[in-house]
Amino acid sequence: MIQTKGYAVQDKKTDLAPWSFERREVGPHDVQFDIQFCGVCHSDLHQIKDDWGGSIFPMVPGHEIVGKVVKVGSHVKKFKVGDLAGTGCLVDSCRKCENCKEGLEQFCSNGSTGTYNALEQDGKTPTYGGYSNTIVVHEDFVLHISDKLDLAAVAPLLCAGITTYSPLRHWKVGKGHKLAVLGLGGLGHMAVKFGVAFGAEVTVLSTSPEKEADAKKLGAHKFIVTKDAEQLKSVTGYFDFILDTVSAPHDLNLYLSLLRVNGVHICVGVPPTPYEIHAFSLIGGRKSLAGSLIGGLPETQEMLDYCAEHDIVSDIEMIDIKNVHEAYDRMIKGDVRYRFVIDMATL
Amino acid sequence: MIQTKGYAVQDKKTDLAPWSFERREVGPHDVQFDIQFCGVCHSDLHQIKDDWGGSIFPMVPGHEIVGKVVKVGSHVKKFKVGDLAGTGCLVDSCRKCENCKEGLEQFCSNGSTGTYNALEQDGKTPTYGGYSNTIVVHEDFVLHISDKLDLAAVAPLLCAGITTYSPLRHWKVGKGHKLAVLGLGGLGHMAVKFGVAFGAEVTVLSTSPEKEADAKKLGAHKFIVTKDAEQLKSVTGYFDFILDTVSAPHDLNLYLSLLRVNGVHICVGVPPTPYEIHAFSLIGGRKSLAGSLIGGLPETQEMLDYCAEHDIVSDIEMIDIKNVHEAYDRMIKGDVRYRFVIDMATL
Asked: What region holds the Enoyl reductase (ER) domain (chains A, B) (predicted)?
């Protein structure tokens, strides 16, 4: 077993604190890489607090993980020692079902294995995430990272990046489309970058007027303060797509009214309470409300390659791991531009 | 003006009763046709009772209208006296907006004109529907009806038919697809006929076990009693599409779980209360919840032509107009197979 240092919560009432644990030895198909940076995702906090139920403790959070390969198994073909490597939200899946075969491991019919707060495919071994110094992952769930980009700023691509890239690709958002990005946070700022890169006209819909300058700097063409009824009215029936990154409760009927005929509202955030949708909000314009969840492994690699080619990374604030609670507090307030990344050298 | 006989409600507290009113003279682009049959749509009842608010009284309901042309305006090119003709839910629209130009008059940006309980494009003249002996409609909103089909059974195609045909065409439902039809009523029975005709595997999801034989007779391949948890479980993650014709409150999260990855749940009914949707129901499988509203004029004609070619009509029960209240009572109980049609000769 590999002795591993990390930060963990012991149960949902305790804070993150240093914890030593073991990871499996590097198997024939495994890659071990030392973690240099790990992004802080809003879902880390949801899971620590058991907001969605079923949390497994002790929990080592973190699923935006990048670092350098230190050991590879005897059968590993895709990686060698010294390579840059990354792992996102998944570390395994059944690999046999229809969805896995199509590269949609996030929808594995038999249940994919999350990077943390999950059980391995054996159904009993807990997984531990990236708030730690090293990790062992089957090579099929390890991604190649370009050395052209700032490694720390690549980390959030593994979740915030693919979560926004995937739906924009799936719905073929691009030239000639009017895309609204609802919420300008970790996910939203990546959605703006991708939307602009894909050629869409991008409008940020935000409750915070003070984010307008940032939105424009990120490349957004328009900015609408959603609390301003007049501004909102000016975009009634305007958008082809809304990418909704908000995980707080909000009235979707309002946003559906901003879509044109055949428009699609895509949710990637998970509010704690159900959406309330009036049938007429969908029927009056043949509109769709859709959801999207991260992306499969092939698409995640495609996204990383696209980012390397187009010089796209996340805007980050680097923190020491001892300051992670302060980072959570600021994240809750929306006071982060736009993703905290832990410098794992501070562990 | 044209003296017209009909059945109307004077306000939402009164019953339908004989009423005489006037229709406009036949203008240069108008077609007048004598109404032989008019279907009874569930939405007639909603509007009479002002369930959706904003009802206009007196109200002559009816938007599944067929009959024979008795007069045409000087500029009318598409119809001549003696032709069979029909009118559905719309009698006008702005004809200038993007949606009208695309033949999606039901989504007219400036507001289409409903066949009854609506105002003409002048914004002040009320429209009166098909529970009457004759009607005057602009030729662009009159449809050609084949003489190959039973005329009375054609009437419901104008609403129940196009409402189910349109989404199945829009989402290209056909060979290789597994389609569920939720609810076997006026709309549902047409959805089954079209789904089968388009080559899909069709499953009826119904609360009423006694409808199984009918469903099979209509061509459905499978029948699932939705109150039977075991039966329902057997189709988890099974369907590509669900066409939801139910206008009573129901839990969509349950039905979304029956969709496979990328599945689409299409609502054509309008329940009185909002749907409650958990974000995970959509996100876990990149699913979509969509709405669809009747169909535009070109597609309605296409549907009628398709029905003539493939010998598709509605299953109907003919009634005298004096029995319309009894018909409503039975419709509420789901006791109609599958559409009441008024024989307007009984007026």
From this structure: 13-342
